[in-house]
Amino acid sequence: MSDRLSDDEIDAELPDGWTRDGDEIVRTFEFDSYLEGVGFASGAGGLAEEAFHHPEMRIGWREVEVRLTTHDAGGITKKDLDLAARFNELAG
Ligand SMILES: C[C@H](O)[C@H](O)[C@H]1CNC2=NC(N)=NC(=O)C2=N1
């Protein structure tokens, strides 16, 4: 099981565009169309399944809000940071 990261570790290693919200990290990805956001969410779901680590996603008008935390650890772990970085790559 992944260990929870310290505040300093989280702050130092948050991928671009992500912010901390309590025991979660969050980023709102913006798109030129609603369906582009839906496509991103679908791709992110595939990456999540691959990692067996699952975000909460809210699909809105030309945006997708993604939240990550490690439920098993009760906080933010390297799994969250690593998957966040992969979501950044997916978004381009
Ligand atoms: C049993 C446990 O739910 C699984 O190991 C996985 C599934 N997906 C998960 N996703 C997230 N975000 N956190 C978890 O701790 C987690 N655990």
Description:
By secondary structure, the chain is an alpha+beta fold. The protein has one domain: Gyrase A, domain 2 (2-Layer Sandwich). Helices cover 42% and strands 23% of the residues. It is globular. The model has no long low-confidence stretch (mean pLDDT 97). The ligand C[C@H](O)[C@H](O)[C@H]1CNC2=NC(N)=NC(=O)C2=N1 is lined by residues 52-54, 69-72.
How would you summarize this macromolecular structure in one to three sentences?
This protein is an alpha+beta fold and 92 residues long. The chain has helices at residues 7-13, 34-51, 78-91; strands at 19-21, 24-30, 56-60, 63-68. It is built from three helices and four strands.
Keywords:
globular, alpha+beta, binds ligand H2B, 4-stranded antiparallel beta sheet, Gyrase A, domain 2, 92 residues
What layout of secondary structure does this protein have?
Layout: H1 7-13, E1 19-21, E2 24-30, H2 34-51, E3 56-60, E4 63-68, H3 78-91
Antiparallel strand pairs: 1-2, 2-4, 3-4
Helix pairs in contact: 2-3
The structure holds ligand H2B.
CATH architecture: 2-Layer Sandwich
- Count of DSSP-assigned helices: 3
What do the pLDDT scores average to? Answer: 97
Give Rg in angstroms. 13 Å
Q: Can you write the helix and strand succession as a string?
A: HEEHEEH
User: Pairing-aware structural class of the strands and helices?
Assistant: alpha+beta
CATH topology: Gyrase A, domain 2
Basic shape: globular
The proportion of residues forming helix, as a percent range, comes to 40-55%
